[in-house]
Structures are given as structure tokens and as C-alpha cells.
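Task: sequence design from structure.
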């Protein structure tokens, strides 16, 4: 679902879009400006999986995907078997989600993921890779909802170029300080296991603390992050790079 913004970006002028990307003062502002742009193209769901200098997945940002799908993606560790980022990393041009079946290596894990992806009912979309310095690359998924997608080559190329510019700006910006920095070491441990779909009782067993203490930590995490559920807390934790997605 699209979110209303008080001062939406003027997305009719490509030069203005690129200037706004270059002038974005923080990664959060940059993300909002890129969302304004892709929403203007009909995108209703967006995901951004970025890697760090070591080439490993460092952060995930999502917008508009069904909560149930995001929750399952995190709890079932789909990030480990999702074949789409790997396909995108080997291709120079964007491709449609409806072409994934033909492009993916047909391993049992990939088949399981693709079955779940279809069952989630997220519809069709576009996938591509963007590149940065020192292996700081990113997979980008843009969902358009139900119906088979068909875009002009010019539109796909423009979207790829704009997001590529945004990724380079993202790499140039230092991670901003967030409310999550107030989390204690123990709260980060709890959040790590929450992101892996563990229940309070299982987390208590892992950390050798009582379920009551786990519950208190989770309430504190919710308050500090400004969220009200486990999925939102996990997405912020992974997206902010506070906890490892793998």
C-alpha cells in the first residue's frame, strides 16, 4: 500500500530526480525519495538487499509487501535460498518475475522458494542488480501487483539507471544514527533470534534466561524502535544492519 507524504517529490522531471538523489542528506531520506520515484512508475512493493565490502548480505529494506510474506521470508530464512538475487547478479539488464522459472537453477531449495513466492500472491515485478564500490552491490525487486507485467525497454532502463544512481549515493552516505542504537547488547541478541522466527520460550532456552525476561526485552525493543509487532522489529533490525540477516 502506498504511503502518503507531506511533500512528495516532483517525479515528472528526471533531472530533478537525479539532483534530489545527489542531495539526499541521509540514507533514510534517500530511500523515501527513491520510493516516490518508483511509486510514480506504478510500483507498489519494493525491496533492496545490499551487500557489504565483504560481499555478504548486510541489510534489507522493504516497502509495501504483505506482512505475512515478510514474516515468512524472515522466519523461514528465505534470504538463504531466494534464487532471484543470484540471477540478478549475473544479468546486465532487468528481468520480470514471471521469467524466474526459466532463469533459476532448479534445485529443491529454489523450487520450494518459488512455490512459496507464487502462493504469496504478490503478483509480477521487475528484478535487477545495482553496483557500488568494494563489492557494495544490491539486488532490487520492484513489485507491480497482480497481472503479467509488460514495460517498455526505455522505462526499464530509466528505472535501472535512477536506482543505480540512488545506490551509489547510498554507498557514499554514512549509516545514520537511529533509535535502535539505544538497544542493549542483550536486546540485540533477543532481536537476532526474533528475526529468525524463534518463540519467546525458545529464545529463553537459547539465552539461558526466563521467558518473562525475554518478554520484558521484547517490550523494550518495541518501545525503542517504535513498533508493535515482531515482524516490524525484525525488518528494522535487519534493514538497519543491527543484526545479521543470515
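Answer:
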Amino acid at each position: 500500500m502506498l504511503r502518503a507524504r507531506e511533500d512528495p517529490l516532483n517525479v515528472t522531471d528526471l533531472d530533478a530526480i537525479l539532483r534530489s538523489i545527489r542531495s539526499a542528506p541521509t540514507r533514510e531520506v534517500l530511500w523515501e525519495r527513491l520510493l516516490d520515484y518508483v511509486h510514480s512508475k506504478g510500483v507498489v512493493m519494493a525491496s533492496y538487499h545490499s551487500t557489504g565490502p565483504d560481499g555478504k548480505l548486510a541489510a534489507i529494506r522493504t516497502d509495501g509487501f504483505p506482512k505475512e510474506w515478510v514474516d515468512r521470508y524472515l522466519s523461514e530464512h528465505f534470504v538463504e535460498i531466494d534464487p532471484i538475487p543470484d540471477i540478478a547478479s549475473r544479468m546486465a539488464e532487468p528481468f520480470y518475475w514471471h521469467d524466474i522459472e526459466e532463469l533459476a537453477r532448479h534445485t529443491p531449495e529454489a523450487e520450494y522458494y518459488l512455490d512459496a513466492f507464487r502462493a504469496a500472491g504478490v503478483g509480477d515485478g521487475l528484478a535487477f542488480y545495482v553496483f557500488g564500490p568494494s563489492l557494495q552491490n544490491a539486488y532490487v525487486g520492484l513489485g507491480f501487483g497482480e497481472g503479467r507485467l509488460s514495460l517498455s525497454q526505455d522505462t526499464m532502463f530509466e528505472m535501472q539507471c535512477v536506482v543505480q544512481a540512488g545506490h551509489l549515493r547510498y554507498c557514499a552516505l554514512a549509516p545514520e544514527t537511529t533509535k535502535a542504537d539505544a538497544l542493549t547488547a542483550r536486546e540485540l541478541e533477543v532481536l537476532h533470534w526474533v528475526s529468525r522466527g524463534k518463540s519467546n520460550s525458545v529464545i529463553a532456552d537459547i539465552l539461558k534466561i526466563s521467558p518473562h525476561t525475554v518478554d520484558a526485552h521484547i517490550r523494550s525493543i518495541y518501545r525503542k524502535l517504535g513498533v508493535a509487532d515482531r515482524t516490524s522489529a525484525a525488518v528494522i533490525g535487519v534493514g538497519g544492519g543491527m543484526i545479521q540477516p543470515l
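The CA atoms of residues 83 and 104 lie 6 Å apart.
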